[in-house]
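Appendix B, Record 12. Input sequence as logged:
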Amino acid sequence: MSEERLTMRERAALLVLMAEARELTNAELRELAGFTLDGACRRRLNELGLVISTKTGRAYVHDLTDDGAVRCQAELSVQRPPRAGYAGGALYVVLAGLRRHLEATGGTLGELFTADLGHRVENAYLVLASRPGDAVPLLALREHLGDVPTDRLDRALTALADRSDVHLRAEADQKSLTEQDRLAALVLGGSPRHTLMIETAG
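Logged structural output:
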């Protein structure tokens, strides 16, 4: 694929999706990077197989494909695009530096950019809960996120607990708890919490 095939906005969309390593809505794109992926720009990236855009209600959710990830890797080695502007020019200097770092360390973009664990927890909650505000056992959450080390998940849950719409609570019926439930608990303020509730998830 030639360098000229993508506009600066299209390249920017790919790079933001790469850096966030997760699906993004247009609202999230706007909040993170100041632009949305819509119209001809979205259609072009979809047609090239670089981004999958799924309509959820009236909004689109965008996700980088494997080919899109390959294209992002290629962006580390290209020359600064014409009319990239000050920020775009600086971005491509940073990308070149990132390429040198990966070459020196043998690392990959996939290792460098990983999804924010807080977002993964929220997404897992949405899968496990019938609706926002329902209590989801931490045991079920840990099983759903089985690839996440316990200490990392504990830190993510503790951070989420600072939000007013997130509640980590002890199971009211202690007799119903299994040994696995007790082991999956998160200790906050000296007491074990067994369930997660997020009032405004999704």
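The first strand starts at residue 24 and ends at 25.
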